């Protein structure tokens, strides 16, 4: 049974409001979903000042509302990433904003196309 109605246009927020499982939504586009443990490269050097970083984050936690993704990213994630980049000298590429309108148009085209076409792609 399809989760998405090919006669409707969806925004990202509307897709996430469907209360459908990720694999069900992806199946509507002809994709499958799997969760796997990633084997990422490990840094072999010593990471210093992690306790200082932890203390700084924990010091501001009682003062910050972390209910939004933006707040969590700015308060919890960004300081950790910046410190790791500083210590490991790894290059950090920050993504530019995405034109969601183009993505939504692409999704809507795929929904219309999928009525008569079966995709057998996997991601």
In angstroms, what is the radius of gyration?
20 Å
Strand content: under 5%
Structural class: mainly alpha
Characterize the biggest β-sheet.
none
Q: Give helix % range.
A: 40-55%
Distance between the termini: 21 Å
- Total of DSSP H or I helical runs spanning 4+ residues: 5
Global morphology: elongated
DSSP strand count = 0
Provide mean pLDDT, rounded: 80
- Runs in which pLDDT lies below 50 for 5 or more consecutive residues are 117-123
SSE sequence, one letter per element: HHHHH
The number of domains is 1
Give the SSE layout:
Layout: H1 12-16, H2 22-28, H3 50-60, H4 69-88, H5 100-114
Helix pairs in contact: 3-4
Q: Care to give the gist of this entry?
A:
The protein has about 120 residues and is an all-alpha fold. Helix content is about 45%, strand content about 0%.
Report on the structure:
The protein is mainly alpha-helical and 123 residues long. It has one domain (12-34, 46-114). The chain is 47% helix and 0% strand. The protein is built from 5 helices and no strands. It is elongated and about 55 Å long.
Features:
single chain, 123 residues, mainly alpha, 0% strand, elongated, disordered C terminus
């Amino acid at each position: 049974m399809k989760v998405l109605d090919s006669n409707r246009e969806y925004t990202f927020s509307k897709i996430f409001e469907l209360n459908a499982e990720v694999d069900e939504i992806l199946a509507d586009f002809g994709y499958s979903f799997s969760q796997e443990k990633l084997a990422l490269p490990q840094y072999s050097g010593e990471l210093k000042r992690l306790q200082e970083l932890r203390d700084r984050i924990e010091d501001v936690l009682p003062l910050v509302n972390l209910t939004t993704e933006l707040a969590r990213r700015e308060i919890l994630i960004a300081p950790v990433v910046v410190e790791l980049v500083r210590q490991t000298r790894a290059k950090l590429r920050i993504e530019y904003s995405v034109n969601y309108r183009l993505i939504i148009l692409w999704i809507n085209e795929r929904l219309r196309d999928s009525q008569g076409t079966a995709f057998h792609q996997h991601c």
